[in-house]
Design a protein that fits this description.
The structure holds three protein chains of three kinds.
Chain A: H1 4-15, E1 33-34, E2 41-48, H2 57-72, E3 77-84, H3 88-100, E4 107-111, H4 115-120, H5 133-137, H6 141-147, E5 157-169, H7 180-192, E6 196-199, H8 206-218, H9 235-253, H10 268-276, E7 279-285, H11 288-295, H12 298-301, E8 304-307, E9 319-328, H13 333-355, H14 362-367, H15 374-383, E10 386-388, H16 395-410, H17 416-433
Parallel strand pairs in A: 2-3, 2-4, 6-7, 9-10
Antiparallel strand pairs in A: 1-3, 4-9, 5-7, 5-8, 5-9
Chain B: H1 5-44, H2 48-51, H3 66-72, H4 75-108, H5 114-124, H6 129-142, H7 149-173, H8 177-185, H9 190-201, H10 203-218, H11 222-227, H12 236-239, H13 252-287
Helix pairs in contact in B: 1-13, 3-13, 4-7, 4-10, 5-7, 7-10, 8-9, 10-13
Chain C: H1 7-12, H2 17-43, H3 59-65, H4 70-104, H5 110-121, H6 125-135, H7 143-150, H8 162-190, H9 194-202, H10 207-235, H11 239-244, H12 256-265, H13 270-299
Helix pairs in contact in C: 2-13, 3-13, 4-8, 4-10, 5-8, 6-8, 8-10, 10-13, 12-13
Classes of the chains: A alpha/beta, B mainly alpha, C mainly alpha.
């Protein structure tokens, strides 16, 4: 996922157990460099502002310690750090363009939803020297599929994942709804008590499409075929699509969800509603559990529980999974290896635990105390039904069209069938132009 | 004067009623223009736990200056501020420097195609930076001119110049030609006349053109975002969003503080130079 | 405007205009003319942001111009721009006149108010969108709706209703953009010869009559110039909308500039974006020509 992952950095870090980091040697980490300026070898690393340079003190200090240890063990190297802004789409396009023009960074953080585009353009360098076959095999299946190619090359390391879950205030909704019908009934009952029954993203942004797609995937719907061609508006996919639209449309029209969902464009709106005690349930990201813990008074937090997203039936479930990867863009095998080591030794594992982010391989959950909480058992279980966005270049436009469609349907300015036809036309036109 | 004592009093009363109406309208407008700033201030004084409490905590229970402290003690933020200041001042200066001779030619010389060119310059104003940036990016990248402040300053100069030409032409037009003529009779060259006589007289116009260009540069996002790839080069208008973490992060309070601090230089410029512009305008108005 | 110059100066000093214009023209050529030509070239190509042109045809043009959503986008653009321009200028004019009146009467707080309006102007567009998004929050505890609740109004569906979302986008735009019109009108109003008003007052005209008889005609040029500048600025605005609504709900607030931005930076469709950029340019130009035509008729 894009923006939503960043929030994690701040909240979890407050709650996450510190690694008992020693006093940080500040001199080895500056705003533009990790290591000593006169080190003979240089790796350029494009990272986000959410870990080493986070606005959150605990996160930043934790990563400073990790980077310091990392570079102490490699005195011949220095890492030139370059920040990317929160404008994910443009920043990622820029990295790709620079790389194609031969000016890209050696190593970069790439959003998991953009990884396909980078793979397709052939700019990713294998990092097999760093990752063993066992380590690759230990990755969750959807992660493994995304980061490797047919030749078995490891083209990126997906260092944390996330998923969507249902949050509920157990003082209003004691039992976790397992199906769409149960969710609607519970939301209507809560609305009868003056609460907002259920909140979810419905505005014009990636989160809206991503969160909603779980309802489509739960029925076995597919957005694109094996060749990356859009098929979501054809045949049985069309029916599943319309069923999933009808589900959320009904939530709003019945009053189970307030009209305002079509203006919600960030996950923080749910935290705010929880803090204000106005909402009974919301569909949010796993990272919000830690946010709620630090935001709500303990007695209020005790009322909140997470459960798997309801499906059309209790057996048909899905949840969208996102997260970030680290990939090597350089031809130099030494640099590519160092890039892989950064991913492996700093981010996947210690970096996960530091921020409470979900690791992408099962073994890491046992390795760190940070994952002892009961919520992590649920997350791990729900990840079994995890679906990641298709690694197709057309996905951004499909997402865009879903956002438009949901906005129009939820605000009552278009009916689902017409909106789906328009979306399919637009996606087809964009696909032909690719 | 024809008015007698009574009508004089009603006029006075009417004027006072007008004052009340003026204040009433201004109060409404102030509420509208102030509200977002009050909201920003409220957010910037909150701790992370109170950020989610929305409007119900307009005055935070535990107000803190920690966010401002945090922002101002961050060397990176100060660099961003300095970059922003440097780029917008130099970009505005370049725009005005380029516009002065052109505006002078439009005001004082007569030549074929003048009207057409004047309109063409205004037409240039129609072009969104969005339109020209992508081709510019491709070339500048081919010429290896990305990632330097000079490039951004040049683009700012080009973006600000058309409006500056128009403003300065109007300013030059307002200066009587007769003043210049006297100097020509004394044998001064046009350049001397321009620099010694016309420019000082046109100071308020130049100041307005400069301030306008500078302020537009200050809040410019697209140009520096696309042309500067290294975060150490960014002006505050681009970098500020790193303090948000994301649109949805708990550092909303830091972003609010950063926004407020980022406004200070521009507002200071307004406060300092406003008086100069106003007094110059008044002088111009009295002369008719 | 002073259009006639004493012939003596012109004749005696045979200055050529070109040297004076050279720096400006050079700048225009490098940073406008050539990039615009390049945009034309790209519009006929199949370029993407990550792929150089491989073929040239009219296909992109026909693809973009026959796009079913284009009329909707253009209508949205027209509404957003048209309403913004009207409101921006009315508010700007009102403020300018209030300031002039307040200063003439020696009222306090005028400089502070002017600075406040100017401060809104320097807020970066994206920050503007974010701030208003929080103010417009429709949650039960949302800022504006809470305030309206105190006086028994609302709640208003600021951002979730397609029509209100447009109104909200315009409000946010007016908050930020008014300063420009205020400055233009303020300067123009101060430049009006005060004796005109004295004469009118002696003739027994009240403030309203003086406004229509003196202020409006005298400000005509400023209004025309400002209309052009403000329309173009508004036409090119997308950052505040991007942050406020993202163009939603649906496409309710997706203006052409935002659509263009999305096409280039979201779909990476450089050729399609170039066509849209040309449409954007053509719209601005057409609008300016209209105003110019009107100005010329007025002058005649």
């Amino acid at each position: 996922m894009t923006k939503l992952s960043f929030a994690t950095a701040f909240f979890f870090s407050v709650s996450a157990v510190s690694l008992g980091a020693p006093a940080v040697a500040q001199d080895l980490v500056t705003r533009t460099m990790v290591g000593l300026p006169d080190a003979p070898n240089t790796l350029t690393f494009r990272l986000t502002a959410f870990d080493l340079y986070s606005s959150d003190d605990a996160t930043r200090e934790g990563f400073e310690a990790l980077f310091t240890d990392f570079i102490r063990a490699r005195p011949d190297w220095k890492i030139e750090t370059q920040l990317q802004t929160a404008n994910i789409g443009q920043e990622q396009a820029r990295i790709l363009q620079q790389t194609l023009a031969g000016r890209g960074p050696d190593c970069a953080m790439i959003d998991s939803s953009q990884l396909a585009l980078f793979k397709e353009n052939g700019v990713l360098q294998p990092m097999n020297a760093v990752f063993s076959e066992e380590e690759v095999a230990d990755l969750f299946p959807y992660v493994r599929e995304a980061v490797t190619n047919e030749a078995g090359e490891v083209l990126a390391w997906w260092w944390f994942t996330d998923l969507r879950v249902l949050y509920r205030d157990t003082s209003v909704v004691p039992d976790a709804p397992q199906t769409w019908d149960e969710l609607k009934a519970a939301a209507l009952a809560a609305a009868g008590e003056g609460r907002e029954g259920i909140l979810f993203n419905g505005g014009r942004w990636e989160g809206t499409a991503f969160d909603w797609l779980a309802n489509f995937w739960a029925q076995g719907g597919r957005l694109v075929d094996d060749d990356g061609e859009p098929i979501f508006a054809d045949g049985e996919n069309r029916e599943k699509f319309l069923t999933a639209v009808a589900y959320v449309q009904d939530l709003v029209e019945s009053g189970a969800a307030p009209q305002r969902v079509s203006s919600i464009v960030n996950y923080d709106a749910f935290n705010a509603a929880a803090a204000a005690g106005t909402a009974a349930m919301f569909i949010g990201g796993n990272w919000q559990y830690g946010q709620l813990r630090t935001t709500l008074p303990p007695e209020a937090f005790a009322n909140w529980a997470v459960s798997e997203l309801p499906g059309p039936t209790a057996d048909d479930r899905a949840t969208g999974t996102g997260g970030w990867t680290i990939a090597a863009l350089t031809d130099d095998p030494d640099k590519a290896a160092l890039c892989g080591e950064i991913a492996k030794e700093i981010y996947a594992g210690p970096g996960n635990a530091l921020q409470g982010l979900l690791p992408t391989s099962a073994s890491l959950y046992e390795q760190y105390d940070a994952y002892d909480g009961p919520e992590f058992e649920l997350f791990a279980e729900a990840l079994q039904n995890g679906v990641s966005r298709p690694g197709a270049a057309i996905y951004p436009e499909i997402s865009n069209q879903i956002q438009i469609l949901l906005g129009e349907v939820l605000s009552g300015s278009a009916d689902p069938e017409t909106a789906l036809d328009a979306a399919a036309d637009a996606v087809r036109a964009a696909f032909e132009r690719l | 004067m024809t008015g007698d004592v009574t009508s004089g009093m009603t006029a006075g009363k009417r004027a006072r009623a007008g004052d009340v109406a003026t204040y009433a309208l201004l109060a409404l407008l102030t509420a509208f223009f102030l509200a977002p700033f009050v909201w920003l201030l409220s957010l910037s004084l909150r701790t992370s736990t109170e950020v989610f409490l929305g409007a119900s905590r307009l005055i935070p229970d535990v107000p803190t200056l920690g966010n401002f402290e945090r922002i101002l003690s961050d060397p990176a933020f100060l660099t961003y501020l300095w970059n922003g200041l440097k780029l917008s001042v130099m970009g505005g200066g370049l725009a005005v420097a380029l516009a002065i001779p052109a505006a002078y030619a439009f005001s004082r010389l007569r030549w074929r195609g003048m009207d057409a060119l004047l309109i063409a310059i205004l037409a240039v104003q129609m072009i969104s930076p969005l339109v020209i940036l992508v081709p510019l990016y491709r070339w500048l990248s081919a010429l290896d001119l990305l990632n330097t402040h000079l490039t951004v300053i040049a683009v700012y100069g080009a973006l600000g110049m058309p409006l500056a030409v128009w403003l300065l032409k109007v300013a030059f037009d307002a200066i009587p030609v007769e003043i210049e003529e006297a100097a020509f009779v004394d044998g001064a060259s046009r350049w001397i006349v321009l620099t010694r006589l016309t420019l000082p007289l046109a100071r308020p116009g130049i100041a307005s053109a400069f301030i306008l260009a500078m302020v537009m540069n200050w809040s410019q996002f697209l140009v520096p975002f696309i042309l500067l790839e290294r975060d150490g080069d960014w002006p505050v208008s681009v970098a500020i969003f790193n303090f948000a973490g994301s649109i949805s992060a708990s550092t909303t309070q830091l972003l609010a503080a950063a926004c407020l601090v980022a406004l200070i230089p521009a507002v200071t410029v307004f406060v300092l130079l406003q008086r100069m512009i106003v007094s110059a305008l008044i002088a111009g108005a009295v002369k008719g | 405007m002073r259009s006639s110059k004493p012939a003596s100066v012109q004749i005696r000093r045979r200055d050529r205009a070109l040297p004076w214009l050279a720096p400006a023209l050079l700048m225009l050529a490098v940073f406008y003319a050539v990039p615009v030509l390049d945009v034309f070239r790209l519009a006929f190509s199949d370029a993407t942001l990550v792929r150089a042109p491989t073929a040239y045809s009219l296909e992109t043009f026909s693809d973009v111009l026959t796009n079913a959503v284009l009329p909707e986008i253009l209508l949205t653009t027209l509404i957003f721009t048209g309403l913004s321009v009207v409101v921006l200028q009315l508010v700007g004019l009102m403020i300018a006149l209030l300031l002039v009146r307040g200063e003439r009467r020696g009222l306090h707080g005028m400089a502070a108010f002017r600075t406040l309006v100017l401060a809104a102007w320097v807020v970066p567009g994206i920050a503007n969108g974010l701030i208003w998004q929080m103010l417009f929050d429709e949650a039960p505890y949302g800022t504006l709706n809470s305030l309206l609740g105190f006086v028994g109004v609302g709640p208003v569906a600021w951002l979730s209703d397609p029509v209100m979302a447009m109104v909200s986008a315009i409000i946010a735009n007016v908050w930020q953009g008014t300063a420009f019109s205020m400055v233009v009108f303020y300067a123009a109003r101060r430049a009006i010869n005060p004796t005109l008003y004295e004469v009118a007052s002696v003739d027994g005209a009240n403030a309203w009559e003086a406004f229509w008889a003196i202020t409006v005609p005298q400000l005509r040029l400023a209004i025309a110039a400002n209309t052009i500048l403000v329309s173009v600025q508004t036409l090119n605005t997308f950052d505040s909308i991007l942050a406020l609504t993202g163009g939603g709900p649906g496409r309710a607030t997706e203006v052409l500039a935002l659509f263009t931005f999305n096409t280039v930076f979201y779909n990476l469709d450089l050729a399609g974006g170039s066509v849209l950029a040309l449409i954007l340019f053509a719209l601005g130009l057409a609008f300016a020509t209209l105003i110019f035509g009107w100005l010329r008729r007025e002058a005649a």
